[in-house]
Amino acid sequence: MTTSDPHGVVRIGKYIVNLEDGLVLRDDEELSLHTRTAAVLRLLVQAEGGLVSGNEILSSVWPSNQVGTNALYKAINELREAFEDDHHNPSYIENLPRKGYRLIARVTGVDSGKRRTRVFAAALSAAVLLAASALVAYWNHQPDAVAPSIAVLPFTNVDGHSESDYLAFGIAEALLDGLARVPGIQVAARTDSLNIDPARLSSRAIGSALGVNHLLEGSVQRSGNRIRVTVQLIQLPDGMHVYSDRFDEDATGLLEIQDSIASHVVDVLHVALDPEHRRRMIDWGTSNPAAYHAYLQGEYLYHQETETDNWSRALALYEEAIRHDPDFSAAYAMVIGVLGSLSVQVDTPSLDRLRSHAAAIYTTALENDIDAEIMSEMSLIMRMLTGVGLTSVERQCREQISSGEATETTYTIYGRLLMGARLFREGIAYIDIAKRLVDDDHKFIYEQIKNPGRKGLGHLDEAIAVLKRARLTNPNNIPNLGGLILMHLQVKDARQARFYLDELERSDTNGVWHHGLSMIVGAATGELTPENMTNGLRLRQGIDFNYGNGAAYLILGDVERGLVYWDQLSNQAIEALYYWLPGIEVLFPDSVVSDARYQNFLNELGIGVAWHEHLMSAVAELAPITGIELSEETMADLEVRQIELGLLQAGSGATIARATPGRVEGDSR
User: Fold this and answer.
1) Which of 243, 264, 384, 575 has the greatest number of beta carbons closer than 10 A?
2) What pairing do the DSSP bridges indicate for beta strands 214-223 and 149-152?
3) 70 and 375 Cβ atoms separated by less than 8 Å
4) Strand, helix or coil at 152?
5) Residue 602, CA atoms < 13 Å, CB-side half-sphere
C-alpha cells in the first residue's frame, strides 16, 4: 500500500475511487457510496494498512450521534459489496475480531485534475450510453410503448404428493421476488397473483383482473431425487406462448433452474440488465442446494398458518438451512422471527427455552458476520424477546432513526411503542413510514399493526374489519383473536366476544391466553363477580395467570386485589401488558383509572405518565428526521391527564411518583 491523498482519486485494488465524492468506478458502472461509508473508507485509506478500531471509526464518522455498532457494520458491508469482497477470504477489508478493521488492498494514486475529471466523466458517459441503448431497445420491442408487466401465478404440483407442495410454492415465490428486483418490469403483488386459481379463469380474465400484459405459470413434478419443472410465459391479450421450457434435473439443480427461467423471462420481455442487476435478480440467498431446499420447506410451512404447529416445524427447517450454509442471512432472520412469533403464545418455562434458543442463533450469526441490516433487525427482535426493557428497546430504535439507518422493523417497533403510550396518531404515522419501505405484498400486515391506534382513536368498526380480513388467511393468530375479543367487549357485543374466545381456545395450546381473556370476558359481562371469582378453576394460580386474574379484579373495581396480581408479573409480561393496556383499560371503571394506587403502580412499572412524556419528547426530537410532529390532540390529551392526576394527588394526599421508566430494565419480580 502506498500513501495517497484521502480526499483525491485513487486506485484501490482493481477499482478507481473518488474518495472525496464517495464514487467507485467498477467496469462501466459507477457506484455512489453512502456519505458515512465514504468517510469510513477515507479513514481506512489514511491508516495506510494500519488497524483502525471500531470505536475510533464511530467517534470520527458519527461524532454527534449516539449510534450503535450496527451503523458501522452496515458501512463495512457496503464497502465489501462495492469491492465485491468476500468477508471470509478478504482481499480488500480485513476484520480482526474485537480489534478493528484495516484496508489490505493496494492503494495507489491517480493523477488529479483532468485525469480525475476524465475518469468519472467517462464512467458517466458510459452509463448514459448504456441506459440510452437499453431504452431504445426496450421501446423498439414494446408494442404501443406499453411497459412490460407480469404476474407470477401459483405453480401446480402435478405429482399429487404433498411433500412436493413446497417446491411449487417456493419456485413461484422465488421467481416473483427475483423479477420484482428488475427495474423496468412491473410485477403484480404476491397477495393478488399467488391467490388466483388459474384453472377457474381464462388467461385474459386473469390479466385484466391483475392489470398485466404477461403471465408466468408452471408446474412441478418430483420423482425421487429428480424434479421436472415446466414453465410458460403468456403474452396478453392474444394468449400467445412467447417462452416455454422444461427442465428435468437432479433436485440439487433447482437454483440453476430458477436462474435460467428468470433470465429467459427478462430477455423475452426485452429488458436490458447490467451485470449487477442481473446478479441481484438471481440472488436466492444461498448457493447451497440443501440449504435452499430446507429454507423453501420452512417458508411453505410458515405461511400455512391454519396449522398451529407449523411454526415449530418451520423453525427446525430454517435451522437445518443454517447448518448447511452458515452464511444464509435470510434463514437467521426467519429463525429469530419465528421464535418471536412463538413467544407470544407460550408459558414461562417455554419462553425461557425460546430465549436461550434465540441467543444461541444470534451468537452464531455474529460469529458468521451476517449482513448488518439483518443483524440490526435481529437485535431489535432479540431485545423484545428477552425482555430487556422498554427503555432499552426505545433507545436502540431512536439511535437508528437518528443515524438514518432505520429499517421498516425499527419504525414498526417505535410506532407500537408510541401507541402503547396512547400516542395513537404519532404511532400510526411511524408505522406508515415502515409500510412505505416494504413491497406491496407485505403492506397489509402493517394495517393490522396499526389497529391499536385505530381503537384508541375510536375507529372500532374499521379495526374489526381489518382483523376479520386477516382471519381469512390466518385464522389461528392468537393476538388477532385477542384483539377481536377486546373490541367486541368495548362495543358491548358479548356474543361475538365469546365466539372469538371459543376460537382462541382451539388455538391456544397451553391455555395462558385463553385463561387471561376468559377472565376479562367474564368480568366485563358480569358472569364473574367478586363473590364467585375463586369458584372452580377460574382463578388459576401461577405466574402465567397473574395477568388475567389482575385484569378481572380491576374490571370489577377491586384495585387492591388487581394490583396484587399485577405486581407479580414477569418482565416479559409487563411489556405485553404495556401494549395491551390501552385496549383493556377502557373496560375499567373510572374509579380504577383515577385511583392514585393504580397510577402510582404504572409509574413504578415505568409505563405511566413519565414514560409517556419521555416518548413525546422523543417524537419532537426526531421530527426533523421523520417529519412527524406531535398532534394538537395528543398535547391536549396529556394536558387533561396531567390536570386529572394533579387533582387526584391534591384530593387524596397520595403521591404520584414521576419515576423514569426503569422497572422492566432489571427488576425480575
Assistant:
1) 575
2) parallel
3) yes
4) strand
5) 24
Which strands form 29-32's sheet, in the order they lie side by side?
29-32, 23-26, 15-18, 9-12, 107-109
Tell me the CA distances in angstroms from 580 to 137, 341, 382, 605, 643, one per residue in order.
Answer: 56, 16, 20, 14, 24
Decide if 659 contacts 609 (C-beta within 8 A). no
Q: How many residues does the structure list for the chain?
A: 669
Cα(343)–Cα(350) distance, integer angstroms: 8
Contacts of 241 (CB under 8 A, 6+ apart): 232, 233, 234, 235
For the cut 60, the answer to whether the pLDDT of residue 67 exceeds it is no
Q: Evaluate whether 430 touches 557 at the Cβ level (below 8 Å).
A: no
In this model, does residue 656 exceed pLDDT 50? no
What does the alpha-carbon distance between residue 331 and residue 342 come to, in Å, rounded to a whole number?
16
Nearest to 554 by CA among 579, 528, 576: 528
Q: CA-CA distance, 566 to 74, in Å (whole number)?
A: 41
CA angle 490, 493, 495 (to 5 degrees): 135
Q: What is the pTM of this model?
A: 0.65
SS3 for 515-565, per residue? HHHHHHHHHHHCCCCCCCCCCCCCCCCCHHHHHHHHHHHHHCCCHHHHHHH
Q: Which three cell numbers stand for residue 27?
A: 467496469
CB 391 within 8 A of CB 417: no
Q: What is the mean pLDDT of residues 39-54?
A: 88
Q: Which residues of 268-278 are buried (b: 16+ CB within 10 A; e: fewer)?
A: ebebbbeeebb
The CA angle 155-159-162, to the nearest 5 degrees, is 80
The predicted-structure confidence for 154-183, as pLDDT tens digits, reads as follows: 899 888 777 788 999 999 999 999 998 888
HSE-CB at 261 with a 13 A cutoff on CA atoms is 28
Q: What average pLDDT does the segment 535-541 reach?
A: 68
Grid cell at residue 66:
449516539
Cell of 473: 388467511
Q: How far apart are CA 651 and CA 655, in angstroms?
A: 11
Q: Is 653 a residue whose pLDDT tops 50?
A: no
pLDDT digits (tens, 9 = 90+) for 89-101: 788 898 886 678 8
- Cross-strand partners of 229: 220, 247
What one-character-per-residue DSSP string does 54-85 give? HHHHHHHHSTTS---HHHHHHHHHHHHHHTT-
Q: How many angstroms separate the CA atoms of 202 and 80, rounded? A: 48
Percentage, residues of the chain above pLDDT 70:
84
